[in-house]
Hints:
The structure holds two protein chains of two kinds.
Chain A: E1 5-9, H1 19-28, E2 33-37, H2 38-41, H3 49-57, E3 61-67, H4 75-84, E4 103-108, H5 126-129, H6 131-139, E5 148-150, H7 158-177, H8 197-201
Parallel strand pairs in A: 1-2, 1-3, 3-4, 4-5
Chain B: H1 8-29, H2 34-45, H3 56-77, H4 80-85, H5 87-111, H6 116-127, H7 131-140, H8 147-173, H9 179-206, H10 208-218, H11 221-241, H12 246-256, H13 263-288, H14 291-296, H15 298-322, H16 327-336, H17 342-353, H18 359-397, E1 409-412, H19 416-427, E2 433-436, H20 439-447, E3 453-454, H21 460-465, E4 473-476, H22 481-494, E5 499-504, H23 507-515, E6 519-522, H24 525-538, H25 543-564, H26 571-600, H27 609-613
Parallel strand pairs in B: 1-2, 1-4, 2-3, 4-5, 5-6
Amino acid sequence: MTNQVLLLLAHPTLETSRVNKKLLQAAQGCAGVTVHDLYARYPEQMIDMRAEQALVEQHELVVFQHPLYWYSCPPLLKNWLDTVLSYGWAYGEGENVLTGKPWVHAISTGGSDSVYQRRGYNQFTLAELLRPFEQAARLCQMPYLQPFLTQAADTLSDEYLQQQAETYAVWLSRLVAGELPPVVDSLQAESAQYLAPLAEEG
Amino acid sequence: MAEAHIPSLLLESAIYLGAAVLAVPVFRRIGLGSVLGYLFAGIIIGPWVLGLVADTETVMHFSEFGVVMMLFLIGLEIEPDKLMELKLPIFGMGGLQVLLTGGVVFGLGAGLGLDWRLALVAGMGVAMSSTAIAMQILGEQGALNRPDGRSAFSVLLFQDLAVIPLMILLLVIAPGEQTSQGVHMDWLAILKAVSLVVLLVLSGKYLLRPVLRYIANTGLREIFIAFALLLIIGVSILMTLVGLSMALGAFIAGVMLADSEYRQELELDIEPFKGLLLGLFFISVGMSVNLDIVMQQPWLIVGLALGFVAIKLALLFGLAKIFKLGNAGGLMFAVTLSQVGEFAFVIFGAALDAKVIGFEQSALLNSVVALSMVTTPLLLLGYNMLYRRRLNQRGRDKGHDEFEEARPIIVAGFGRVGQIITRLLTSAGIAPTVIEHDPNQIELMRNFGYRAYYGDITRPDVLRAAGIAQAKILILAIDNAEEALETARYVRQHYPEVKILARARNRTYVFDYMDLGIDSVRETFLDAVNLGELALRETGYTPFQAHRTAWRFRQHDEKMMRDIHPIHTDMQKIVSHSVRSRQDLQNTLRQEMDEAVASFNHNAWEGGSAETKA
């Protein structure tokens, strides 16, 4: 089976980005992936709810690609969640069109994996920090998949980035092909597996 | 009988124009270039082949004015600051070029046992290059802003300056009397010359601009052209009076007007005159090739011409290397300046008058000079075959080098709209080229430090001069909606690569622009939306709610414009579509409001609905 993948990109300064720009280029070459650059589409940060809902309905899977800003997503993506995940469409009374559509993040973090550890520099693991997204997905009855991580974004080498972009393209095409990463459920495992096996190799 | 009534001026004009019209397009077509075409036409109609025209010399003097106009135009392209940057190439390269070439030719001549005076005169003449040919080539090759082109131009400029001391030197070496008097006279002459140049610079700076504005304000194009011609001719006469080169005077006048708003207009008006006169000049060079003398001593003349060109090529290329030009650039520089120029005719003529050389020698040298001019277009052909392809490839690889020169954005109109666009772009560090046809508006904005060019954007030649061919974006901010649309049509057709941004007077114009595939902004639309937003606030909407509603309206309206574009000629359909569309928007806005209210009146966050449904 093939999935139509909707990739929602949220990066307010893509022009100076290194990692996300490179990953985006890799994604743009993937068949079956619709790249939707939110800051390009909505420079005024006013989101067209109906158009976005229609877009989501046309796809089987939603990827949120963004850098980690203050342990969360950039503001336009939060705005997107607030606007688009409306009552009666995403949750609550009504037909809940999102049921069963997987939700997955592709996140870049400035720090390396080692600083996102319990009692580490950031006190919490990424799994813990991302729990609001996990629960939002659960409320919409969307399977919340293991994210694609690119860490130490500020310091990684060009070679590694190149390799990571290729890995990303493979990861995306697997989503299209229906080979999905495991579902994350923090309730079941206190330390949910957050590093995708592919990324670990690098 | 009828023949006798035709004034000879008309007849000769017909011959010159006819020869040019016949020869030049053919030469252009077969890739030999226009200069060679003119020269060939001149040889054919000249006294030695068809003998259609008798008075060669007068024509040549008259047509030298084409060179003067060309230097005026070159001056217009160079702002005073940039001229200062060229100090080193002018005096370093130019000085070395004249001294070395003159010296080598003089040494060879003297070494071969010629009269030292003849050798010196030949050296002085051969050191000169043809401004007319070289600048024509640099222009056609688009090399004027490249390092090789700038160097070539600097050397030419120095040669113009060098003519004055060379002429004095001629008087000094003239055999016989009046030497001392000549030297005595020179101090006064130099004083006169210097004060005239100062006067020219000052009046160019403070007097010319108001006068030009006054004349532009009359709106009479032919008077503007008349003034431009008068300016050049007047300056030339003044320069001749104090013994300076006319071309130099025109050049200075041009530089003084380079940063004025009338630059482009002047360029456009003078350009055709320059082109025709320059063509005439090349024809007269062709006519002056004395085929009799060439036939008598063909090998000597051809040999001398080729020898001089070879010497110049070698010296120029060496010079280019010393001043760190690359191989391709250096060769281009050398080829451009390799011929012996029109100043040589002047120098040989003066030498003949001063009895420094004899008539036979002067005729021979003149033929050699004319022949050397014929070699340049041929050398250029060879150069192009050698380097064109390679240069093109390199240009493509580092594609960003080129568009640094020409400005990527042209703003047409410097009124209320154009000003704001220009301020915004300038503050972002992207200064556009601005064109405006109202002199008062230009002057007003000049006070604020903004600079616009005077010109009428609806004219194709103005567009071309503004650099439309290299531009990426053309912003149409002029007030006349019909003219803006016409300009857009023209540019869309002739420069499809240029992105056009337009301001549309009303919906009809929006559709017209849509037909052309052009993005336009509807005049007054955003103002109205903003006012509506303020009104919503006054009725109790929160600022953000008012903004959101106004934004929704805008999106809806813009979508509707796209939807009714295919049917916009059918008034009835438009009306029904608009009514339906208005109801849609009302429904949408109400529905959104209801949903917003509903989302706070359900108990989903109390764990109600989702769980029970699942």
